[in-house]
């Protein structure tokens, strides 16, 4: 809850005690991630296209299932009679000490789930002490999100614009707004094959929603229209978004709809143009960003080594939650191979390279598995968006506090006191099962 007396320095498991002692009911309706997903679907039943845009998958949904099954293949081995009375989840990423290894993943177009969009999520993350990663596809400006995040830790995720001048403008703004690390997404130079969105022709960008990083950017806006347009730093997108009604207004020649369509499609051409970058292009970002650079979407040892050769600071092992390529390897299976590389492990131990994990984290057990497999931090996406849809800022806080409490409790029950005791120790903390549970596709 906003204003909750718990602080990042408090034992996370005290959140559980506070629920039992006060009888407080959750605003999200449950602490079971499967039930939260169902509740989010129910609360958005009148806006189902927006729900599916956020929570749907590429193709048949097989990669989404592969993500969950790859985690299920590994089981934790609890140890007994070990002194885990006092526990913490502290970790350090890029020289910054953090109260846990959990980060809020970059999630676009949050304004179609809740009226406050990214402002709610950024504020909740700061309240809990969890780093917030802002998406280029946000429905609020860089500056507005930074203000909502206040003194929280924040990173900026880049959907790499086609135009260098626009890219440089965004990087300058992000740095000025206190974003300390740059996350470059590599797997979305064009949008994946998503039947659920195609069935309803649902793409919020065409209505000017999710393009607010662009509409607040002076360089981008100067390039749009005859003589350019003035930036809109405080723009708030409509909620709920009725895309059919927008199309009707557009067809009728509504000037506001036409302006939104023009800006939305122009921003799409910048960020999802179909122009693919190569490894040599990373040098441009390295020259123009003063801070850590992390490449998101790496799934192979070869690409992990290429990232090291490109002198970036880290990678996020991710397949975009299964939203880009159907039939792809589960992200945790990719993490297993990448962190088994002696070159990667040496660089991690020397503090020269950081490996983070994304795609499939749902529970505290998942977090522990990822850390034991060699990840130094994990990014969480869908569960946080369920919380946003169900309760705005308060809902996001509840999801984060619940995940942190679950992680800390499970860590102790397995006989460990801190993250260092399990990091990279797959041989003693985990074992691989023969037959994982089958997941139900969305």
Automatic annotation (TrEMBL):
FMN binds at residues 106-108, 135, 157, 185, 296, 318, 358-362, 381-382. Belongs to the FMN-dependent alpha-hydroxy acid dehydrogenase family. This is FMN-dependent alpha-hydroxy acid dehydrogenase. It comes from the Eukaryota. The keyword Nucleus does not apply. Its cofactor is FMN. Keywords: Flavoprotein, FMN, Oxidoreductase.
